[in-house]
Amino acid sequence: MQLIQQPLLALTLLPAIIAGLPTSHPPSEELQARKHNWTFDLFHNKHCAGTTVSYSGQGSSGCHSNFENGGAEAFINVNIDTGCKVKLFRDRKCSRHTMIEEIKAKISTKCKPVSRKKTAQSFEE
Ligand SMILES: *[C@@H]1O[C@H](CO)[C@@H](O)[C@H](O)[C@H]1NC(C)=O
Q1: Which of 54, 29, 50 is nearest to 39 (CA)?
Q2: Is the CB of 37 under 6 A from ligand 1?
Q3: Rounded Cα–Cα distance for residues 108 and 81 (Å)
Q4: Positions of the chain with pLDDT lower than 50, given as ranges
């Protein structure tokens, strides 16, 4: 009796172990694919004339400052993924209370001047 029962137990356990093995991609790869892509242009001129400085990336990468041409007066939303927001700030440290613009997926892809009399000095996604 004992000799028959043990191999049976081993056979029923085996499929359970196989089912527990990971079958999908590593989690890091999936996380990468879900990161939001963002691309936008900044201009020192309110009419988006002059030098175009393009910024692009994936996901959140912190506060960016030291803009070329000493601050942005206008921007163009080139491609911002749904669910992603780029925030423009008046100071160089992305301080919450100096936020002046949000560039979002739904916003126009035409030239948009930064709020009247303000110049963006930093951005964050
Ligand atoms: C961002 O771009 C990458 C590469 O083109 C793509 O695989 C990924 O799905 C995009 N992310 C989103 C949220 O659409």
Answers
A1: 54
A2: yes
A3: 13
A4: 7-24
What is the Å distance from ligand 1's center to 64 Cα? 22
> Model pTM greater than 0.85?
no
Q: Is the torsion defined by CA of 80, 67, 72, 43 positive or negative?
A: negative
Q: Residue 29: CB within 6 Å of ligand 1?
A: no
For residues 11-25, b (16+ Cβ closer than 10 Å) or e, as one string?
eeeeeeeeeeeeeee
Residues with Cβ < 8 Å from 94, sequence gap 6 or more? 63, 65, 87, 122, 123, 124
Amino acid at 81: D
- Vertex 80, ends 117 and 64: CA angle to 5°? 55
* Strand-strand pairing, 63-64 and 74-80: unpaired
